[in-house]
User: Fold this.
Amino acid sequence: MIQPRTLKGFRDYLPGAMMPREELVNTARKVYRSYGFAPIDTPTLEYAEILLGKGSDETDRQMFRFQDQGNRDVGMRFDLTVPLARFAAQHIGTLGTPFKRYHIATVWRGEAPQRGRYREFMQCDFDTIGTKSLVADIETALVIHDLMLAIGFESFTVRVNNRQVLSGLLEKLDLAEKSTEILRALDKLAKIGPEKVAAEMQEAAGASAEQAAQVLKLAEIGGSSDEILSALDKLIAGSEKGETGVGQLRELTQATAAAGVPADRLQIDVSIARGLDYYTGTIFETFLGELPEIGSVCSGGRYNDLASLYTNQELPGIGASLGLDRLLAAMEELGKLEQRTTPAEVFLPYFDAQSLQSYLKIAAQLRGAGFNVELYPEAKKLGQQLKYADRRGFKVAIVAGDRELAENNCQLKDLKSGDSQTVSLANGAAELITAISEILRDSA
Amino acid sequence: MIQPRTLKGFRDYLPGAMMPREELVNTARKVYRSYGFAPIDTPTLEYAEILLGKGSDETDRQMFRFQDQGNRDVGMRFDLTVPLARFAAQHIGTLGTPFKRYHIATVWRGEAPQRGRYREFMQCDFDTIGTKSLVADIETALVIHDLMLAIGFESFTVRVNNRQVLSGLLEKLDLAEKSTEILRALDKLAKIGPEKVAAEMQEAAGASAEQAAQVLKLAEIGGSSDEILSALDKLIAGSEKGETGVGQLRELTQATAAAGVPADRLQIDVSIARGLDYYTGTIFETFLGELPEIGSVCSGGRYNDLASLYTNQELPGIGASLGLDRLLAAMEELGKLEQRTTPAEVFLPYFDAQSLQSYLKIAAQLRGAGFNVELYPEAKKLGQQLKYADRRGFKVAIVAGDRELAENNCQLKDLKSGDSQTVSLANGAAELITAISEILRDSA
Assistant:
């Protein structure tokens, strides 16, 4: 006999974990589609040369890579951005631009397993490719906003910055050559504080104390969007790049406000830098009001050229990625996940052994009305069946013995309150359908 | 520069191919859930020992198998049944029985690529585990029936048989030892005809001409369900196993009829055998009325013991699998697929460069009413924008220049008929929302 087990760093999803995951993916899909993003998929396996050297040394090392049956050197995708670049280079002639796509799919990284980190996880990306227009940036902010609301969060902040603001300042300070090191130091601001960041800027980037202070002065600008924009205007004056960046931030915040996004849900935050060289304009991070310490749950930004490794065609774009695992962890911690292991609301015990056809008919009527209904398959003792229903989290049970069925009615049991009512099954179970709707509405 | 290309046998899904695929998966998910099946997922990679020797020599050979970074011998799953067996053995104590799950996921087989066959494809399975009750068989038939209707097929037949009928007959004929060879021959009946099947039964299974004729007599029983059941009663009389099988077929057809399934959509077909040793009771195949030659689009059956390789606990069950690729090919051939590459119905050209905020507001209002809306990101010439809309398959376009916006109205253009109408934007765009709904309803 073989021991049933999963590989280290991999996991099974039981229904209780899979249902909220499916719902989250469905919500993301709906919001993406509402803005005209279309789905794509790409193969799990790519030629290794497509994937190698596109992320970091670390992603190369972590890649699941092997020789296939035809001795091709292949790898499993470690993100959805590299496959998108290959895909866009290959198909952009057919697709045309602007091209708006979402891609929700599994990726693999052989990293050392640790709490909350797995070797197989899902990414949930959307991007607009082939346009430099700031409208795409504005819509990206709106998608993130709508997405957080649709998932069920009231309190959250999309933090927005523009890389050109910082680039402009670094140019002004003659630090443009050292931007990678400066950004890397700046990214640690929330973690290690301004003094240590200043020290790192001086050590790693060779900045003077005065230069480091200027960069930190930028990062520490706070207040309302208007206040931040005024402060930036002054700090950045004279740098064309910086002024462009501030102008874009101004237009973006005005447009999202006009589209109905409240000021507390979209804030300029000049301290966010989002890693190294990839982003070139608008950048986003998103924090939960009730759980900011979990980190950004939706991040992204604008890039100049997606696919320069595979094509000469310039493909500028902007996109973001929803952090599914992080969000699910947050929702669990905040008690926002239902503790159920069935997608059905209605439980129909197989109470009277002779009445199967009646049960099948009731179940069909309720499904026709849009309910999910599970009929227990065996005529076991009612108590045993109801215990099963309780454990799985059904909302109501329909108890109908031969006596009830002879009178064309049933007992409708609210499994939360324990209340029971006698309901008629006449007229296509119309009364039952209404009564179930009421219980479900009250419990929602 | 690296040539952007996919591996042989793998494919990209562009939006036009991905959208119907997503819709089909969503439909399957909805129907499965309506019967209380819950989603699960398992890892792509399993220990090779979990996967090896579970299918055939062929699946072993076709498996993508390699050493991971920790020198573990791992493989990519080639179906969803073997992972389900491992999963059930590992978790059934937590899950409890009966356990109803669906699993919609990608699998990999390194077979020689040929037309319509890929090395990466999706399976879409549902199973009820841990009960021998025929209610689960009946519900499996009902799920398949509801699924075909929900996908949009009116004309189809679920063909049902019971392996015990044939086993009973083979016992009666003293051919029980040779059932594998007999079944293998019988499976070819539709392809090669009765004479060649009889010859193969004699050659491969050592059956006499008379025995082969008896088996073929069974397979050739036709007519209505009642006629078939009467004929089977006679042929099988005296075999306990055979009588059980006929009894189950009778109960299943009566129950599905009572649940509202028309007789032409569920028929007994004693000629279907579904491969070799795995199935032990009810078996299903499903054929499209307009395209039967494409083969079964949803198949499955009952098995005695799912996971005997991984656990001592007996886990009987029944399930079936929707053939997504085959169905999509059929839908394409039958002209049932919409030729669109956008999930949005409404196209909003960025007509007047100064009016971005108005467009963002209109788009938000329409999204709030449930429409999917794409705003073009650049203020290009209107003709160019409308050409883009045409190519993607939007249904309506909203044209609003500065003059229209000043009067708080817009032109609503039906992109199919070419008709335009002037519509007010007052009251949260109420008139526009109604007018779009009407056009979409008429075009559906």
